[in-house]
Write a structure and sequence with these properties.
This protein is an all-alpha fold and 98 residues long. It is built from four helices and no strands. It has one domain. Helix 2 runs antiparallel to helix 3.
Length: 98
């Protein structure tokens, strides 16, 4: 049994609860991290931060996709409904809703 199998088994013992406001992102930690990087870009007035922010955005999207595969495998249709109602990364947008 792999660590991923153990996580899925443990997660299935819990309900997929939704305690978020639908207009806020379902990945708030990643949203905060992206906000800090963009803030640093603005304070530094561009330069090398542009490359860093672009790379971070790509890496965050890859990480989110991998996490969402696990959540989909664990919670199935409940998670599909959740994704339709809550934006992925940027609050108050429809971007990232499936």
């Amino acid at each position: 049994m792999s660590s991923e199998d153990i996580l899925i088994h443990l997660a299935r013992r819990h309900l997929c609860t939704r305690r978020v406001v639908p207009k806020f992102p379902r990945t708030p930690i990643y949203t905060g991290l992206l906000g800090m990087l963009v803030g640093s870009l603005l304070i530094a007035r561009g330069g090398e931060w542009v490359v860093g922010v672009a790379a971070a955005l790509i890496l965050l999207e890859v990480k989110i996709v991998l996490e969402e595969r696990l959540l989909l495998a664990t919670f199935g249709e409940q998670y599909v409904q959740f994704k339709r109602q809550v934006p992925q990364l940027i609050p108050f947008t429809r971007w990232g809703r499936s």
